[in-house]
Amino acid sequence: MATQQRTIDFLLEQATGAGTVTAKPMFGEYGVYVDGKMIGSVCDDQLFVKPTVSGRAHSEPVSDAPPYPGAKPQMLISADRWENAKWLGELLRITAAELPAPKPRKPKGGS
Q: Region labeled Disordered — which residues (predicted)?
């Protein structure tokens, strides 16, 4: 089951306190970014957030699950917790702060 657009719209609306939050289509689902850093994904209408020490402390109790078969487990944030916009924005913000900056992309093509 693919993620519905209304799920992404609600997530982005609730996460306003995290910075610039975007969702980009990836492999039929969505990658979630905060200020350009990928912090997780939404697969089958479920939010998966990359585990960090601060993010896990903020989220406890939280369970881990892979967002898709073969993926590393990530924190699965239950939909009922999305209702608390302040809590969700803080989770995404502190997760992004702890993750490394994305590596610069190499230019396409030759010299």
A: 54-73
Length of the chain: 111
Nearest to 93 by CA among 20, 41, 43, 31: 20
Structure confidence at residue 110 (pLDDT): 56
**In the chain, where are the structural domains located?**
5-98
Q: What is the pLDDT of residue 50?
A: 97
Q: How far apart are CA 86 and CA 75, in angstroms?
A: 18
d(CA 110, CA 96): 33
How many angstroms separate the first and last alpha carbons of the chain? Answer: 43
Q: Are 43 and 8 in contact (CB under 8 A)?
A: no
For residue 29, report the phi and psi dihedrals to the nearest 5 degrees. -125, -155
Q: Note the pLDDT of residue 111.
A: 54
